[in-house]
Specification:
The complex is a heterodimer of chains A (530) and B (212).
Chain A (H helix, E strand, L loop, with lengths): L13 H5 L4 H29 L10 H36 L8 H23 L13 H4 L4 H28 L12 H33 L12 H35 L6 H14 L15 H29 L8 H24 L1 H7 L3 H31 L5 H27 L14 H31 L46
Helix pairs in contact in A: 2-3, 2-4, 2-15, 3-4, 3-6, 3-7, 3-8, 3-13, 4-6, 6-7, 7-8, 7-9, 8-10, 8-11, 8-13, 9-10, 10-11, 11-13, 11-14, 13-14, 14-15
Chain B lengths: L15 H36 L1 H8 L4 H26 L3 H32 L16 H34 L9 H25 L3
């Protein structure tokens, strides 16, 4: 394979990357930016965990502490986790899994990458020019009165929203119009179904965030008063608008992760995915229900008790499709030929951590418990179990799974397993303790705390260092793989999926020859015939 | 790979039909997100009208329904000329298509000029959002109505301006003979966008100008 022309070496020079319309190159560039954001957001996390080592001030002022947790949240949500899987792995593999040459609108795809970068520039400007301290939710009235740089961050997120919408439109059209001959809807891999469901949410929810942030900017600049009670406005309306996007956005984050997990479990069990159709429908069901649950963020914000009851009920409904998925993944392992490689380890940790995150979500969705747990570390632990234990673990599973295909190089499996242990142990050390802390009444976003909580905070901070070590080991072996890694074969994991039937790394047009008519499902393993 | 394809088919499409239908689906999705973009403003309108129903009725008397009505007719007529420019482009009638586009652009200009005079009058009498409000009125909260009025019509006006830019671009391309019965995708896409802009105004007009 060495010396063969592929998408990486087909053309040379910086310009050939900046102006490329190749979805694979765009995906790789997204991957680089997204990982950079993850690094930056992670650094802020380490800073704030370090401050929390002692009950009183350690090295940050109260205002700096607020700025650090805001920047951690805003960077992780808007720059990392929303684009993470769809824009990087999705961009790379969606057209290949569909047997297409590219996405439907390659130039739009490139535009959305550079719009993302432009949005990121505004966010970074907000960091250096008087960092924002409102929390990533930008709640009014504080966000319309604080003297920190709200507008650059809000503008940055507004621009990032456009990038997200354009990617969503591109993916929906690609799935509808670019499938290879014979690839009908129910022959599509579940990663595609997940990206499709995600894209629907991106197109429908993100514009509402855009207008909300625009109104917030108007509120700050000309004091339009729409969220200001002194002028006859209503600050709770901001929360409704904000969560009408941001709750579906939670599923923008988790659905692609579920797609990755489905791919990984089928490949490493060499078995047809259990309940394939139901998996596809449950992705769509999650996308649909996601629009009906935003009010569960407002239980204590003074919305009507009837609305609260309804939102609680609807929130419980999310548990059904999510439960279907978890059971199906576990059932897929049953009697499978399990290959315990690093992507599969991340799959296992996903199942374990996502289930904890999901169940605690049901706890928070119930009214009486939420009154007690609202704004405590229990909430922080819950969403980190879903977002990091779920999405980030799946992202890592996908990164390890598709790494050989993307770069044509293998990484050290031993180093990957060592890093996995650090990441898994570190993660649980940071966040499991926060469930206990939260249920004992430790409020989130507090700068100083009562001395009795110190042992929990110390453990949590120690965990953050273990986690960091895990990620640095990972950085090490990935860089080593790029420099000196062994050349990857076409199909190192023995997968039956379409993307493994092309070269590693793929050529510019993905498949050298015309594809055969696709007459079988995505997870067609010989075991099935027995 | 694209040896047998027509000049306008991009490298990653099989044929012109796939390209056209992809563009059309993409445009419809874009329109959906535009509607959701405006939807939050419609919700804000509903919430505040529910909170202050009498104030809304009183405040809307300060808007000129005649100017708004003329603008509605102008936009509906421009939607017709836009549709005709697509039709004539499909029939290879380049000159007619060009002039239909020109008429649409002219209508958009009329709309913006009328809007300008409306805005100037509001600003002159102090019917402005929030702290800038200095107009006469029995309700203290009247600035909320004008906050919503200026945000909604302002964003709509911005969309009209974008549409005007797109129509000018189409006119230049039409003059160069870019569009014919085989390839008229941009004309149809801008047409869809223009109808959306028209449709949003059709909802804004009764909600703002014709209350009570």
């Amino acid at each position: 394979m060495a010396g063969a022309l592929n998408y990486i070496n087909a053309t040379k020079g910086l310009k050939s990357w900046i102006f490329t319309v190749d979805h694979k190159r765009i995906g790789i560039m997204y991957l680089a930016f997204v990982l950079l954001s993850f690094f930056l957001g992670g650094m802020f996390a380490l800073l704030l965990r370090f401050e929390l080592l002692t009950p009183s001030t350690l090295y940050l002022t109260a205002k700096q502490y607020n700025q650090v947790f805001t920047l951690h949240g805003a960077i992780m949500v808007f720059l990392f986790i929303v684009p993470s899987i769809p824009a990087s792995l999705g961009n790379f593999f969606l057209p290949i899994q569909l047997g297409a040459i590219d996405v439907a609108f390659p130039k739009l795809n490139l535009a959305s990458l550079w719009i993302y970068v432009l949005g990121a520039v505004f966010c970074f400007y907000s960091i250096v020019g008087g960092s924002i301290d409102t929390g990533w939710t930008f709640y009014t009235p504080y966000s319309s009165s604080t003297d920190t740089s709200v507008i650059p961050m809000v503008l940055g997120v507004f621009i990032l929203g456009f990038s997200s919408i354009l990617t969503g439109i591109n993916f929906i059209v690609t799935v509808h119009k670019m499938r290879a001959p014979g690839l009908t809807w129910f022959k599509m891999p579940l990663f595609i179904w997940a990206l499709y469901s995600t894209a629907i949410i991106q197109v429908l929810a993100t514009p509402v965030l855009a207008i909300t942030l625009l109104l917030l900017a108007l509120e700050r600049t000309i004091g339009i008063g729409i969220f200001d009670p002194a002028l006859g406005g209503d600050p709770v309306l901001f929360q409704h608008f904000f969560w009408f996007y941001s709750h579906p956005a939670v599923y923008i984050m988790i659905l692609p992760a579920m797609g990755v997990i489905s791919e990984v479990v089928a490949t490493f069990c060499k078995k047809k995915l259990f309940g394939y159709e139901l998996m596809a429908y449950s992705s769509l069901a999650i996308a649909f229900i996601s629009f009906l649950v935003w009010g569960h963020h407002l239980y204590v914000s003074g919305q009507s008790p009837y609305a609260t009851m309804l939102f609680s009920l609807l929130t419980f409904l999310v548990g059904i499709p999510s439960g279907i998925k978890v059971f199906n993944w576990i059932a897929t392992m049953y009697k499978g030929t399990i290959d315990l490689k690093s992507p599969f380890l991340y799959f296992l940790s996903f199942i374990f951590l996502f289930t904890i995150g999901g169940f605690t979500g049901v706890v928070l969705g119930s009214l009486s418990l939420d009154i007690h747990l609202h704004d405590t570390y229990f909430v922080v632990a819950h969403f980190h179990y879903v977002m990091m234990g779920g999405t980030v673990m799946a992202f890592l599973a996908g990164l390890h799974y598709w790494w050989p295909k993307m770069f044509g190089k293998m990484y050290s499996e031993l180093a990957a397993r060592i890093a996995f242990v650090f990441v898994f142990v570190g993660f649980n050390l940071v966040f499991f303790i926060q469930f206990i802390m939260g249920s004992k009444g430790m409020p989130r976003r507090y700068y100083n705390y009562l001395p009795e909580f110190q042992p929990y905070h110390v453990l949590s901070t120690l965990g953050s260092w273990v986690l960091a070590v895990g990620f640095f080991i990972m950085l090490g072996y990935f860089i080593h793989s790029l420099m000196k890694g062994k050349t990857a074969p076409e199909n190192p994991w023995g997968s039956s999926a379409l993307e493994w039937k092309t070269a590693s790394p793929p050529t510019t047009f993905n498949f050298d020859k015309n594809l055969d008519y696709i007459d079988h499902g995505p997870y067609d393993y010989p075991e099935e015939n027995k | 790979m694209s040896g047998s394809k027509l000049g306008n088919v991009a490298h990653h499409f099989e044929n012109a039909y796939q390209q056209f239908s992809s563009a059309k689906l993409g445009m419809w999705l874009f329109i959906v997100q535009e509607i959701l973009f405006f939807s939050a403003l419609f919700v804000a309108y509903a919430v505040y009208r529910g909170m202050h129903p009498e104030m809304f009725v009183d405040a809307h008397h300060h808007l000129s329904w005649k100017m708004g009505g003329i603008n509605t007719l102008v936009l509906i007529f421009s939607s017709f000329t836009m549709a005709m420019s697509i039709r004539t482009a499909q029939l290879n009638q380049r000159l007619q298509s060009f002039w239909y586009l020109g008429t649409t652009l002219f209508c958009a200009c009329i709309f913006m000029v009328i809007k300008f005079f409306e805005y100037a009058e509001k600003i002159h009498h102090g019917y402005l959002p929030s702290v800038w409000f200095s107009g006469e009125g029995i309700y203290e909260t009247m600035h909320i109505f004008f906050g919503i009025y200026f945000t909604m019509t302002g964003l709509h006006g911005l969309h009209v301006l974008v549409g005007m830019g797109l129509i000018i671009w189409l006119m230049l391309e039409t003059r160069k003979g870019k569009y014919n019965s085989e390839y008229f995708t941009p004309v149809e896409m801008v047409g869809l966008y223009w109808h959306l802009v028209d449709l949003i105004w059709i909802f804004l007009f009764p909600l703002l100008y014709l209350i009570g």
